[in-house]
Amino acid sequence: MKDNDHTESLDNSKIGLVRTTSLVAGNMIGSGVLLAPAILAPYGSLSIIGWVLTTIGALALALVFSKLSMWIPKAGGPYTFARHVFGDFIGFQMAWGYWISAWCGSVSLLVGGMQYMSVFCPDLVANEVFAISFGLIVIILFTCINMIGMKESTFFQVLIVLIKVVPLVTIAFIGIFFVDFSQIMSISGINTKSSLSALGEMSTVLLWAFIGLESATIPANNVKNPKKTIPLATIYGVLITAFVYICGAIVISGLIPHEELLQSKAPYVDAAKKIWGNWGYIAMIITGLAGIYGSLNGWILIQGQVPYAAAKEGLFPKLFMQTNKNGAPYGVIVGSILMSLLFLLTYQPSLVEYVRLLIEVSVLAMLLPYFYSAIAFCYLAIQKKRELSLIEKIFLPIIGFISILYTFVAVIGSGEQLVFICTVMFLISVPFYCFCKNK
User: Fold this and answer.
1) How far is the CA of 71 from the CAs of 39, 55, 97, 230, 350, in angstroms?
2) In this predicted structure, which of 148-157, 285-294, 324-333 has the lowest mean pLDDT?
3) Which CATH number fits domain 15-438: 3.30.70.1120, 3.40.50.300, 1.20.1740.10, 3.40.309.10?
Protein backbone atom coordinates (compact mmCIF):
# COMPACT_ATOMS: atom_id res chain seq x y z
CA MET A 1 0.00 0.00 0.00
CA LYS A 2 2.80 2.37 0.89
CA ASP A 3 4.60 1.59 -2.38
CA ASN A 4 1.44 2.45 -4.34
CA ASP A 5 1.06 5.71 -2.43
CA HIS A 6 4.70 6.56 -3.10
CA THR A 7 4.31 5.81 -6.84
CA GLU A 8 1.16 7.94 -7.02
CA SER A 9 2.94 10.76 -5.21
CA LEU A 10 5.82 10.64 -7.69
CA ASP A 11 3.41 10.64 -10.62
CA ASN A 12 1.56 13.66 -9.22
CA SER A 13 4.84 15.58 -9.10
CA LYS A 14 5.35 15.07 -12.84
CA ILE A 15 4.20 17.47 -15.55
CA GLY A 16 1.68 16.75 -18.31
CA LEU A 17 1.21 17.87 -21.92
CA VAL A 18 0.08 21.45 -21.22
CA ARG A 19 2.97 22.26 -18.89
CA THR A 20 5.52 20.48 -21.10
CA THR A 21 4.28 22.37 -24.18
CA SER A 22 4.44 25.60 -22.15
CA LEU A 23 8.05 24.81 -21.25
CA VAL A 24 8.91 24.36 -24.95
CA ALA A 25 7.01 27.40 -26.24
CA GLY A 26 7.97 29.49 -23.22
CA ASN A 27 11.70 28.82 -23.66
CA MET A 28 11.50 29.81 -27.33
CA ILE A 29 9.19 32.82 -27.18
CA GLY A 30 11.42 35.30 -25.40
CA SER A 31 13.93 37.90 -26.51
CA GLY A 32 14.26 36.14 -29.89
CA VAL A 33 10.87 37.19 -31.23
CA LEU A 34 10.70 40.50 -29.37
CA LEU A 35 14.14 41.86 -30.32
CA ALA A 36 14.79 40.05 -33.62
CA PRO A 37 12.83 42.51 -35.83
CA ALA A 38 15.18 45.31 -34.74
CA ILE A 39 18.33 43.19 -35.09
CA LEU A 40 17.22 41.92 -38.53
CA ALA A 41 15.94 45.30 -39.80
CA PRO A 42 19.07 45.92 -41.95
CA TYR A 43 18.20 42.83 -44.01
CA GLY A 44 14.77 44.16 -45.02
CA SER A 45 12.20 41.84 -46.61
CA LEU A 46 14.83 39.09 -46.84
CA SER A 47 14.31 38.51 -43.10
CA ILE A 48 10.79 37.17 -43.83
CA ILE A 49 12.30 34.51 -46.10
CA GLY A 50 14.79 33.79 -43.34
CA TRP A 51 11.97 33.22 -40.84
CA VAL A 52 10.23 30.76 -43.19
CA LEU A 53 13.41 28.78 -43.91
CA THR A 54 14.33 28.70 -40.21
CA THR A 55 10.83 27.42 -39.36
CA ILE A 56 11.31 24.52 -41.79
CA GLY A 57 14.66 23.68 -40.18
CA ALA A 58 13.21 24.01 -36.68
CA LEU A 59 10.31 21.69 -37.51
CA ALA A 60 12.76 19.12 -38.88
CA LEU A 61 14.78 19.35 -35.64
CA ALA A 62 11.57 19.09 -33.60
CA LEU A 63 10.73 15.84 -35.40
CA VAL A 64 14.29 14.60 -34.80
CA PHE A 65 14.07 15.26 -31.06
CA SER A 66 10.55 13.81 -30.90
CA LYS A 67 11.69 10.53 -32.43
CA LEU A 68 14.89 10.40 -30.39
CA SER A 69 12.87 10.87 -27.18
CA MET A 70 10.87 7.76 -28.15
CA TRP A 71 13.94 5.71 -29.03
CA ILE A 72 15.96 6.87 -25.99
CA PRO A 73 13.41 7.71 -23.24
CA LYS A 74 15.88 9.20 -20.75
CA ALA A 75 16.44 12.67 -19.31
CA GLY A 76 19.21 14.91 -20.68
CA GLY A 77 18.03 15.76 -24.19
CA PRO A 78 20.82 16.28 -26.78
CA TYR A 79 23.46 15.18 -24.25
CA THR A 80 21.78 11.81 -23.71
CA PHE A 81 21.14 11.23 -27.42
CA ALA A 82 24.77 11.99 -28.37
CA ARG A 83 26.20 9.89 -25.53
CA HIS A 84 23.98 6.92 -26.43
CA VAL A 85 25.40 6.81 -29.97
CA PHE A 86 28.91 8.32 -29.72
CA GLY A 87 30.02 7.47 -26.18
CA ASP A 88 31.11 9.34 -23.06
CA PHE A 89 33.50 11.94 -24.49
CA ILE A 90 31.15 13.28 -27.19
CA GLY A 91 28.25 13.06 -24.73
CA PHE A 92 30.20 15.12 -22.22
CA GLN A 93 31.08 17.76 -24.84
CA MET A 94 27.42 18.05 -25.81
CA ALA A 95 26.45 18.54 -22.15
CA TRP A 96 29.25 21.11 -21.81
CA GLY A 97 28.16 23.07 -24.88
CA TYR A 98 24.49 22.92 -23.95
CA TRP A 99 25.20 23.98 -20.37
CA ILE A 100 27.34 26.97 -21.41
CA SER A 101 24.74 27.95 -24.00
CA ALA A 102 22.01 27.84 -21.34
CA TRP A 103 23.58 30.34 -18.96
CA CYS A 104 25.07 32.56 -21.69
CA GLY A 105 21.66 32.69 -23.35
CA SER A 106 20.06 33.44 -19.99
CA VAL A 107 22.24 36.55 -19.69
CA SER A 108 21.07 37.70 -23.13
CA LEU A 109 17.47 37.29 -21.94
CA LEU A 110 18.23 39.28 -18.82
CA VAL A 111 19.76 42.13 -20.81
CA GLY A 112 17.00 41.91 -23.44
CA GLY A 113 14.49 42.46 -20.65
CA MET A 114 16.40 45.55 -19.58
CA GLN A 115 16.31 46.86 -23.13
CA TYR A 116 12.53 46.49 -23.11
CA MET A 117 12.27 48.24 -19.74
CA SER A 118 14.48 51.08 -20.97
CA VAL A 119 11.63 52.13 -23.29
CA PHE A 120 9.77 53.63 -20.32
CA CYS A 121 12.62 53.68 -17.78
CA PRO A 122 15.77 54.97 -19.58
CA ASP A 123 17.66 55.29 -16.28
CA LEU A 124 17.67 51.50 -15.95
CA VAL A 125 20.23 51.28 -18.72
CA ALA A 126 21.98 54.62 -18.20
CA ASN A 127 22.61 54.08 -14.47
CA GLU A 128 25.03 51.16 -14.38
CA VAL A 129 24.74 50.53 -10.62
CA PHE A 130 20.95 50.44 -10.78
CA ALA A 131 20.96 48.21 -13.89
CA ILE A 132 23.40 45.69 -12.42
CA SER A 133 21.52 45.59 -9.09
CA PHE A 134 18.24 45.02 -10.91
CA GLY A 135 19.75 42.22 -13.04
CA LEU A 136 21.14 40.39 -10.01
CA ILE A 137 17.79 40.62 -8.18
CA VAL A 138 16.04 39.09 -11.21
CA ILE A 139 18.55 36.19 -11.30
CA ILE A 140 18.04 35.53 -7.56
CA LEU A 141 14.24 35.67 -7.90
CA PHE A 142 14.00 33.10 -10.71
CA THR A 143 16.63 30.88 -9.12
CA CYS A 144 14.50 30.74 -5.97
CA ILE A 145 11.38 29.91 -8.02
CA ASN A 146 13.19 27.02 -9.70
CA MET A 147 14.54 25.69 -6.40
CA ILE A 148 10.96 25.27 -5.17
CA GLY A 149 10.52 22.37 -7.59
CA MET A 150 9.74 21.34 -11.18
CA LYS A 151 5.95 21.39 -10.87
CA GLU A 152 5.82 24.86 -9.30
CA SER A 153 8.29 26.29 -11.81
CA THR A 154 6.35 24.94 -14.81
CA PHE A 155 3.03 26.18 -13.35
CA PHE A 156 4.57 29.66 -13.37
CA GLN A 157 5.68 28.97 -16.95
CA VAL A 158 2.09 28.17 -18.07
CA LEU A 159 0.87 31.52 -16.70
CA ILE A 160 3.71 33.40 -18.39
CA VAL A 161 3.09 31.70 -21.75
CA LEU A 162 -0.58 32.72 -21.65
CA ILE A 163 0.34 36.31 -20.75
CA LYS A 164 2.82 36.67 -23.60
CA VAL A 165 1.32 34.53 -26.38
CA VAL A 166 -2.21 35.98 -26.39
CA PRO A 167 -1.11 39.61 -27.09
CA LEU A 168 1.44 38.48 -29.69
CA VAL A 169 -1.20 36.42 -31.51
CA THR A 170 -3.61 39.38 -31.24
CA ILE A 171 -1.06 41.68 -32.90
CA ALA A 172 -0.53 39.09 -35.64
CA PHE A 173 -4.28 38.80 -36.34
CA ILE A 174 -5.31 42.46 -36.01
CA GLY A 175 -2.06 44.02 -37.20
CA ILE A 176 -2.39 42.29 -40.59
CA PHE A 177 -5.21 44.75 -41.42
CA PHE A 178 -2.84 47.69 -40.85
CA VAL A 179 0.06 46.28 -42.88
CA ASP A 180 1.36 48.09 -45.95
CA PHE A 181 2.50 45.14 -48.06
CA SER A 182 4.08 47.43 -50.66
CA GLN A 183 6.37 48.69 -47.88
CA ILE A 184 7.53 45.14 -47.14
CA MET A 185 8.32 44.42 -50.78
CA SER A 186 10.14 47.72 -51.25
CA ILE A 187 12.66 47.10 -48.45
CA SER A 188 15.47 45.17 -50.06
CA GLY A 189 17.84 45.47 -47.09
CA ILE A 190 21.62 45.18 -47.45
CA ASN A 191 22.48 45.63 -51.14
CA THR A 192 26.20 44.97 -50.91
CA LYS A 193 25.82 41.26 -50.17
CA SER A 194 24.20 38.32 -51.90
CA SER A 195 20.96 36.91 -50.56
CA LEU A 196 22.76 33.68 -49.61
CA SER A 197 25.41 35.58 -47.66
CA ALA A 198 22.77 37.68 -45.87
CA LEU A 199 20.77 34.57 -44.94
CA GLY A 200 23.93 33.04 -43.49
CA GLU A 201 24.56 36.14 -41.37
CA MET A 202 20.96 36.11 -40.12
CA SER A 203 21.01 32.40 -39.31
CA THR A 204 22.28 32.70 -35.72
CA VAL A 205 19.72 35.35 -34.73
CA LEU A 206 16.92 33.45 -36.49
CA LEU A 207 17.91 30.16 -34.89
CA TRP A 208 18.14 31.82 -31.48
CA ALA A 209 14.40 32.43 -31.69
CA PHE A 210 13.87 28.64 -31.87
CA ILE A 211 16.52 27.56 -29.38
CA GLY A 212 14.69 25.59 -26.71
CA LEU A 213 12.64 23.41 -29.07
CA GLU A 214 14.25 20.37 -27.39
CA SER A 215 13.35 21.55 -23.86
CA ALA A 216 10.76 18.81 -23.30
CA THR A 217 13.39 16.09 -23.79
CA ILE A 218 15.67 17.33 -20.99
CA PRO A 219 13.52 16.76 -17.85
CA ALA A 220 12.12 13.51 -19.34
CA ASN A 221 12.09 11.75 -15.94
CA ASN A 222 9.71 14.44 -14.65
CA VAL A 223 7.20 14.11 -17.53
CA LYS A 224 4.07 11.95 -17.42
CA ASN A 225 3.99 9.31 -20.19
CA PRO A 226 7.16 10.77 -21.79
CA LYS A 227 7.08 8.65 -24.98
CA LYS A 228 3.77 10.27 -25.94
CA THR A 229 3.90 13.64 -24.14
CA ILE A 230 7.40 14.78 -25.21
CA PRO A 231 6.92 14.37 -29.01
CA LEU A 232 3.51 16.10 -28.91
CA ALA A 233 4.77 18.93 -26.69
CA THR A 234 7.79 19.48 -28.96
CA ILE A 235 5.73 19.66 -32.18
CA TYR A 236 2.95 21.78 -30.63
CA GLY A 237 5.49 24.15 -29.08
CA VAL A 238 7.34 24.70 -32.38
CA LEU A 239 4.10 25.20 -34.36
CA ILE A 240 2.76 27.77 -31.87
CA THR A 241 6.09 29.58 -31.88
CA ALA A 242 6.48 29.55 -35.68
CA PHE A 243 2.99 31.00 -36.16
CA VAL A 244 3.71 33.85 -33.74
CA TYR A 245 7.13 34.55 -35.30
CA ILE A 246 6.19 34.62 -38.98
CA CYS A 247 2.94 36.57 -38.58
CA GLY A 248 4.62 38.98 -36.18
CA ALA A 249 7.56 39.56 -38.56
CA ILE A 250 5.19 40.39 -41.43
CA VAL A 251 3.16 42.79 -39.29
CA ILE A 252 6.24 44.56 -37.87
CA SER A 253 7.85 44.96 -41.32
CA GLY A 254 4.65 46.30 -42.88
CA LEU A 255 3.61 48.54 -40.01
CA ILE A 256 6.78 50.32 -38.89
CA PRO A 257 8.73 52.38 -41.48
CA HIS A 258 12.12 50.84 -42.17
CA GLU A 259 14.17 53.79 -40.93
CA GLU A 260 12.16 53.80 -37.70
CA LEU A 261 12.57 50.04 -37.28
CA LEU A 262 16.35 50.38 -37.58
CA GLN A 263 16.32 52.62 -34.48
CA SER A 264 13.66 50.71 -32.51
CA LYS A 265 14.53 49.23 -29.11
CA ALA A 266 11.22 47.36 -28.81
CA PRO A 267 9.52 46.77 -32.21
CA TYR A 268 6.41 45.05 -30.83
CA VAL A 269 5.84 47.92 -28.42
CA ASP A 270 6.06 50.40 -31.31
CA ALA A 271 3.67 48.28 -33.39
CA ALA A 272 1.13 48.06 -30.55
CA LYS A 273 1.25 51.84 -30.14
CA LYS A 274 0.49 52.36 -33.84
CA ILE A 275 -2.50 50.00 -33.65
CA TRP A 276 -4.02 50.77 -30.23
CA GLY A 277 -2.33 53.94 -29.02
CA ASN A 278 -0.86 54.43 -25.53
CA TRP A 279 -2.77 51.64 -23.80
CA GLY A 280 -1.51 49.15 -26.38
CA TYR A 281 1.99 50.56 -25.85
CA ILE A 282 1.84 49.88 -22.09
CA ALA A 283 0.20 46.45 -22.51
CA MET A 284 2.89 45.36 -24.95
CA ILE A 285 5.69 46.43 -22.62
CA ILE A 286 4.16 44.21 -19.92
CA THR A 287 3.76 41.37 -22.45
CA GLY A 288 7.35 41.76 -23.62
CA LEU A 289 8.71 41.60 -20.11
CA ALA A 290 6.55 38.56 -19.35
CA GLY A 291 7.85 36.90 -22.51
CA ILE A 292 11.50 37.57 -21.84
CA TYR A 293 11.51 36.79 -18.13
CA GLY A 294 9.24 33.77 -18.60
CA SER A 295 11.82 32.44 -21.03
CA LEU A 296 14.55 33.24 -18.49
CA ASN A 297 12.66 31.18 -15.89
CA GLY A 298 12.56 28.20 -18.25
CA TRP A 299 16.26 28.44 -19.10
CA ILE A 300 17.30 28.66 -15.47
CA LEU A 301 15.37 25.42 -14.96
CA ILE A 302 17.11 23.79 -17.96
CA GLN A 303 20.62 24.87 -16.91
CA GLY A 304 20.28 22.67 -13.83
CA GLN A 305 18.79 19.64 -15.61
CA VAL A 306 21.48 18.95 -18.24
CA PRO A 307 24.49 18.80 -15.84
CA TYR A 308 22.27 16.81 -13.44
CA ALA A 309 21.76 14.12 -16.11
CA ALA A 310 25.49 14.14 -16.95
CA ALA A 311 26.53 13.99 -13.27
CA LYS A 312 24.34 10.92 -12.69
CA GLU A 313 26.47 9.13 -15.27
CA GLY A 314 29.79 10.34 -13.88
CA LEU A 315 30.53 12.96 -16.56
CA PHE A 316 30.00 16.08 -14.42
CA PRO A 317 31.09 16.70 -10.80
CA LYS A 318 28.89 15.10 -8.11
CA LEU A 319 27.80 18.56 -6.92
CA PHE A 320 25.51 18.79 -9.97
CA MET A 321 23.81 15.52 -9.01
CA GLN A 322 22.76 16.74 -5.57
CA THR A 323 19.20 17.99 -5.08
CA ASN A 324 17.29 19.81 -2.35
CA LYS A 325 14.22 18.42 -0.56
CA ASN A 326 12.03 19.58 -3.49
CA GLY A 327 14.06 17.55 -6.00
CA ALA A 328 15.60 20.66 -7.61
CA PRO A 329 19.27 20.13 -8.57
CA TYR A 330 21.89 22.46 -7.06
CA GLY A 331 23.23 22.89 -10.60
CA VAL A 332 20.55 25.58 -10.94
CA ILE A 333 22.40 27.66 -8.33
CA VAL A 334 25.79 27.00 -9.96
CA GLY A 335 24.43 28.14 -13.34
CA SER A 336 22.92 31.26 -11.77
CA ILE A 337 26.26 32.15 -10.14
CA LEU A 338 28.00 31.83 -13.52
CA MET A 339 25.22 33.90 -15.10
CA SER A 340 25.78 36.62 -12.51
CA LEU A 341 29.55 36.63 -13.07
CA LEU A 342 29.16 36.86 -16.85
CA PHE A 343 26.60 39.63 -16.44
CA LEU A 344 28.89 41.60 -14.12
CA LEU A 345 31.98 41.14 -16.30
CA THR A 346 30.43 42.03 -19.63
CA TYR A 347 27.51 44.38 -18.97
CA GLN A 348 27.57 47.51 -21.11
CA PRO A 349 24.92 50.14 -22.01
CA SER A 350 25.03 49.54 -25.80
CA LEU A 351 22.55 46.70 -25.42
CA VAL A 352 21.55 45.72 -28.96
CA GLU A 353 25.09 44.75 -30.03
CA TYR A 354 25.74 43.16 -26.63
CA VAL A 355 22.59 41.06 -26.88
CA ARG A 356 23.51 40.00 -30.40
CA LEU A 357 26.99 38.84 -29.33
CA LEU A 358 25.58 36.76 -26.45
CA ILE A 359 22.92 35.34 -28.73
CA GLU A 360 25.49 34.28 -31.33
CA VAL A 361 27.80 32.62 -28.79
CA SER A 362 24.83 30.81 -27.20
CA VAL A 363 23.48 29.60 -30.53
CA LEU A 364 26.83 28.34 -31.79
CA ALA A 365 27.45 26.47 -28.50
CA MET A 366 24.00 24.88 -28.97
CA LEU A 367 24.46 24.06 -32.66
CA LEU A 368 26.98 21.29 -32.02
CA PRO A 369 24.57 19.34 -29.73
CA TYR A 370 21.87 19.84 -32.39
CA PHE A 371 24.21 18.63 -35.15
CA TYR A 372 25.27 15.51 -33.22
CA SER A 373 21.64 14.78 -32.33
CA ALA A 374 20.72 14.90 -36.03
CA ILE A 375 23.60 12.50 -36.86
CA ALA A 376 22.51 10.21 -33.99
CA PHE A 377 18.97 10.29 -35.38
CA CYS A 378 20.15 9.14 -38.83
CA TYR A 379 22.35 6.45 -37.31
CA LEU A 380 19.53 5.04 -35.17
CA ALA A 381 17.09 5.22 -38.09
CA ILE A 382 19.45 2.94 -40.05
CA GLN A 383 19.92 0.64 -37.03
CA LYS A 384 16.15 0.36 -36.50
CA LYS A 385 15.30 0.07 -40.20
CA ARG A 386 13.45 -3.23 -39.73
CA GLU A 387 11.19 -1.69 -37.07
CA LEU A 388 10.14 1.30 -39.20
CA SER A 389 6.97 1.59 -41.25
CA LEU A 390 7.15 2.29 -45.01
CA ILE A 391 6.28 5.98 -44.46
CA GLU A 392 9.01 6.30 -41.81
CA LYS A 393 11.55 4.69 -44.14
CA ILE A 394 10.77 7.38 -46.73
CA PHE A 395 10.45 10.48 -44.54
CA LEU A 396 12.94 9.94 -41.71
CA PRO A 397 16.00 10.21 -44.00
CA ILE A 398 14.58 13.46 -45.47
CA ILE A 399 14.01 14.90 -41.99
CA GLY A 400 17.52 13.86 -40.93
CA PHE A 401 19.09 15.40 -44.03
CA ILE A 402 17.26 18.72 -43.55
CA SER A 403 18.31 18.84 -39.88
CA ILE A 404 21.98 18.13 -40.63
CA LEU A 405 22.07 20.61 -43.52
CA TYR A 406 20.28 23.28 -41.47
CA THR A 407 22.63 23.08 -38.49
CA PHE A 408 25.74 22.84 -40.69
CA VAL A 409 24.77 25.92 -42.73
CA ALA A 410 24.04 27.82 -39.51
CA VAL A 411 27.55 27.03 -38.21
CA ILE A 412 29.18 28.12 -41.49
CA GLY A 413 27.09 31.30 -41.58
CA SER A 414 28.08 32.35 -38.07
CA GLY A 415 31.51 33.60 -39.18
CA GLU A 416 35.15 32.88 -38.38
CA GLN A 417 35.33 34.82 -35.11
CA LEU A 418 32.42 32.98 -33.49
CA VAL A 419 33.63 29.60 -34.70
CA PHE A 420 37.04 30.40 -33.16
CA ILE A 421 35.44 31.41 -29.80
CA CYS A 422 33.40 28.20 -29.64
CA THR A 423 36.35 26.03 -30.71
CA VAL A 424 38.34 27.41 -27.77
CA MET A 425 35.32 26.89 -25.51
CA PHE A 426 35.09 23.20 -26.44
CA LEU A 427 38.88 22.69 -26.17
CA ILE A 428 38.74 23.99 -22.59
CA SER A 429 36.28 21.18 -21.83
CA VAL A 430 38.87 18.43 -22.48
CA PRO A 431 40.88 18.78 -19.21
CA PHE A 432 37.57 19.21 -17.36
CA TYR A 433 36.40 15.89 -18.84
CA CYS A 434 39.64 14.17 -17.76
CA PHE A 435 39.19 15.53 -14.23
CA CYS A 436 35.60 14.25 -14.02
CA LYS A 437 36.48 10.81 -15.40
CA ASN A 438 39.42 10.52 -12.98
CA LYS A 439 37.11 11.29 -10.06
Assistant:
1) 38, 24, 23, 12, 45
2) 148-157
3) 1.20.1740.10
